[in-house]
Structures are given as C-alpha cells and as structure tokens.
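Hi again,

Forgot to attach this to my earlier email, sorry! This is the prediction with zinc ion bound. I've pasted everything inline since the attachment limit keeps bouncing my files.
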Amino acid sequence: MTAEQGITRLGVLPLFDPAAEEPPADAIELYLEAPLTVGLLFHLATEGDDLRHLLGPVEEAREAGVAAALESLAHFGEVKVGDHYPGPNLTTIGRREPAQLFVTRVRHVGVDGHHDVARLHDHLYLGRRAVSKADGRQYPLDLDSFQQTHALMDSAYRRALQRSLAATAGVKWSEPREGERAELVAPPLLGCLPDYPRVLCHWHRPLAQRWVVGDGRRRHDNPFLLENRRPHEARAPWEDDDFDGWERAV
Ligand SMILES: [Zn+2]
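Structure tokens for the complex follow:
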C-alpha cells in the first residue's frame, strides 16, 4: 500500500502493533483529517523543487496537531470503577477515576484508490478499557461525556496545526463560518478545493465506533450513551438494520 504508517506514544499506552496486528474489534476509531488544502500543499511540495522546503513545516504542523489532540484525549480520559447506575440523559452515576488510555496511531499520507492529491490523516484507535491512575488496574473507559472530549480534540488539533504552519511557513488561514473548517488562503489554495473532494480512508474496515473528529458534536451523536440506556428507552438511527457506519449519522 502507498500509505505511510507509524505509531507514536504520547502519554498513552499502545493498544496494538499496526505492523503485525489488526485493531481489536471493539476499539473506537478517531479519525483526524488535516485540512484538504494542507494535503494539496504537501502534494505540490513533493512535485517540484520550488515548494520542497514546505514539506518539513507541513509534517511538523501535522505532528503538532496530533500531539495536541492526544494530549486533550489523555487529559479527559476516565474509567468507571465499581457499580454504576442509570443517571440522567443516558449517563451513569458511580465512581470515576482519571486513567491512562490505550491508543495506537496509524498515520497516512493518502487514501488508497484516490491518488489525485495527498489527504493527510491519522487514525487513532482507542481501547475500550484504560488503566486507573489510582490503583493501576484496568476498568471500562467512561464514554458518557465523549462528545465534549471529541469537540476539544478537534479544536486542539486544528489550532495546533494551524499555528505551527503559520509560524514555520508564514501561511494564512481562512476564517471559517460555523461548521466549516479553516483552509489555506495564502498560498491561495482554497479555490482548488472543488477539484479535490473529501474522501475518508478505510484502511481498516471502519468500525461501528468510528468518530470523524470535527463531525458530530451534538449530544445525541454520542453512540456510547446507548450502552447506558434503560430497556424502555428509544432506539437511535444508527441502530436501524440498514445503518452500516457511524459516518452516515453525521
Ligand atoms: Zn488512512
């Protein structure tokens, strides 16, 4: 495959070895996409000598973004310890402890089958269990407030990536409207985007638990809350028989 793979351990424990193993079936996949214009810039920088000096800054910005995302993820990670009981809004009531997470990162430059331009992205595979910092034992990860963590990850990732590239390469970013993502306006790449549609990578068959970071910030976008549901509470759209992926829900 053409994609580049790797693993980093930024304050988290490795979940699996991507060179030799598949993600555990119950892992949660968090998908981080660099802005498409950054992929375009990376592509142009690999094509000729004029922009080759930008390859380093782009990689550096990407690493800054992923590090910030992992930091916010690790900071908010908690486990549920002992018995938990149904609480309001599909949450549970019980003891929670700060935890060290199991996360494996797989980094890709492009999406297989779509070689028109680079689409820099990272898959973060998150384990369903984590290690309590209080007693060192493993417990179920608390996913009740995950939509908040997810939103914080998204803003941390984008802010770090944008700041890094502005500082090292002098680029300028668009000021996006609500729900849109910032893209590069200097160099003027924003106008090229219609030629390069957004494509998500399916390196590993997407798990039902895939979250595209930046999509789906609403409370009812959190599928993990359903695990706390009482028997009489309603089904969610993604539980329908014809629903085959979390991406469809956002
Ligand atoms: Zn990928």
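The pocket of zinc ion is lined by residues 3, 108, 121, 123, 201, 203 (CB under 6 Å). Residues 124 and 154 are 13 Å apart (CA to CA).

That should be everything now.

G.
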